[in-house]
Fold this sequence. Notes:
Helix content: 25-40%
Mean pLDDT: 90
Structural class: alpha/beta
Shape: elongated
Radius of gyration: 18 Å
Oligomer: single chain
Largest sheet: 9 strands, mixed
Number of helices: 7
Order of helices and strands: HHEEHEEHEHEEEEEEHH
Distance between the termini: 29 Å
Amino acid sequence: MSENTSPAPAGHQRRYTAQTLDAFRVITTASLADAVEHHGQRGYLDGAIRQIAPGGSTLAGPAVTVREIPAAEAGPPAHALQAIDESPAGSIVCIDAGGADIAVWGGLMTAGAVARDLAGCVLEGGVRDVTEITRDFPDFPVYARSTVAATTLGRMRTVAFNEPVVVGGVEIRPDDLIVADRDGVVRIPVSLVEAVLHTAQEIEEREKEQTRHILDSGSLRDGLARHNRI
Length: 230
């Protein structure tokens, strides 16, 4: 399960093995958030970045990043389209629109992402066409700050692709590992992926043991005291 954690050259995306991604998919984001904090960083995104379309399973994959800013001129979201058309299969598109109550993602972008076999998207902004997305692309997960009908055209423009962005109060860099489930979204820095996986697996095992102890003893306090964790 070893991964090469050296910086990826420009234009090249670091890939995670299927084994690594599968291992993360069976761990809750709650445990992953605790594990990232154990290693001295914040991993969890603000709770306002919520699950809009659940997709078929826990979302896990490498980030590709896009930044958008307010703009009065009309025009296509060029860097977002580039991210969809040029990113490797399994990528997660993370768009930083500064929390704007504007739809930076919709049905046509989802169709493009599915055609490219991308894994999902995480948006510091809004999404629209949710009925269409959940009906036509039920396996594609979408996490966003809001659902809103407003288009980006004449309101936002894309200014960066695969540069560091901020989503949900957390800096996300290209190739950081993103994991998301019903509890929320967690970012794991590239350099911490193996360490966080190991720590999170230990946390999950302790919680299982703790749950058994609570059920066997009939006492929540005894169960909590056993591992000093809640």
